[in-house]
Design brief:
It is a single chain. The chain is an alpha/beta fold. The chain contains 10 helices and 7 strands. The chain has a 7-stranded parallel beta sheet. β4, α4 and β5 form a beta-alpha-beta unit. The protein is globular.
């Protein structure tokens, strides 16, 4: 693993910084071998807040720059007709960090194509990455096509269908990891369902963020580089009927706005 996906909200960047310090000192990897991403949390939008927040991230990670900084969600916690501070103000503050060398690239997470279009209308530094939920139960084909046309890389979170968040979001529908088509493909290839999903994501054109605290699964999740899903198996996973988000935006919905419904939030 070389891409470390961090965020203020995860509250573990100081621990990651300690681990990085050890592996750098021991010569396991150099700083330039590691791609560090972090995300700006909702309460750190705005011209005055962005730089201090990133400086704290850098202190916690014990590095002098981020490879990628994302806006975590297109929300700031305000109630009213529009997001305040505006996404434009926050984006322009992030652009300043690129000029200063504190951040090499900038992007967004959980943004719709409409919201990305809004940024592209004024951006001096265009979004390099869009990080969103992508897996066979939520393929996001039109969004991927859009990003390809705009030259924006897509990173897929929850590539296994976010099984650990089902209680938090009170989901009652089918679970991707239990899908019979996936089970059949995994059995045929003598791979785990998780390996097949991660491999599907790579072949679907995204980079992947598998998450685990189990050492065995962490190792097996990486064993996806030297083989491919046969075309018919890839296409069968592309044809799963269930299409629904596993990660909800319900926590950001308010009757007074900026987002009154989830359709408002996702611009659907």
């Amino acid at each position: 693993y070389r891409h470390i996906d961090c965020a203020e909200y995860y509250a573990n960047e100081h621990e990651i910084g300690q681990a990085l310090q050890i592996v750098f000192a021991e010569g396991v990897v150099k700083r330039e071998d590691v791609f560090l991403t972090s995300k700006l949390w909702n309460n750190h939008h705005g011209r005055e807040s962005v730089k201090p927040a990133v400086q704290k991230i850098l202190r916690d990670l014990k590095v002098n720059h981020l490879d990628l900084l994302l806006i975590h969600w297109p929300v700031t916690g305000n109630v009213g007709p529009t997001v305040q501070p505006s996404i434009r103000e926050t984006w322009q503050a992030m652009e300043d960090l690129v000029s200063e060398g504190l951040v090499h690239s900038i992007g967004v997470s959980n943004f719709s194509t409409k919201k990305v279009d809004d940024i592209l209308a004024y951006a001096k530094v265009k979004p390099a990455v869009l990080q969103v939920e992508v897996h066979p139960y939520w393929r996001q084909d039109s969004l991927l096509t859009y990003c390809q046309e705009k030259g924006i890389h897509v990173t897929a979170y929850s590539p296994l269908g976010s099984p650990d968040s089902s209680t938090m979001f009170q989901r009652k529908g089918p679970k991707l990891m239990d899908d019979p088509v996936l089970a059949s493909v995994a059995s045929k290839l003598n791979k785990s369902p998780a390996q097949c999903l991660i491999r599907w994501g790579i072949q679907h054109g995204t980079s992947i963020l598998p998450k685990s605290v189990n050492e065995g699964r962490i190792k097996s999740n990486l064993d996806v580089i030297d083989w491919e899903l046969p075309r018919e198996d890839y296409e069968s996973l592309c044809g799963l009927v269930t299409q629904e988000r596993m990660v909800s935006a319900k926590f950001w919905i308010h009757p007074s706005g900026p987002y009154k419904t989830q359709k408002d939030f996702w611009d659907e």
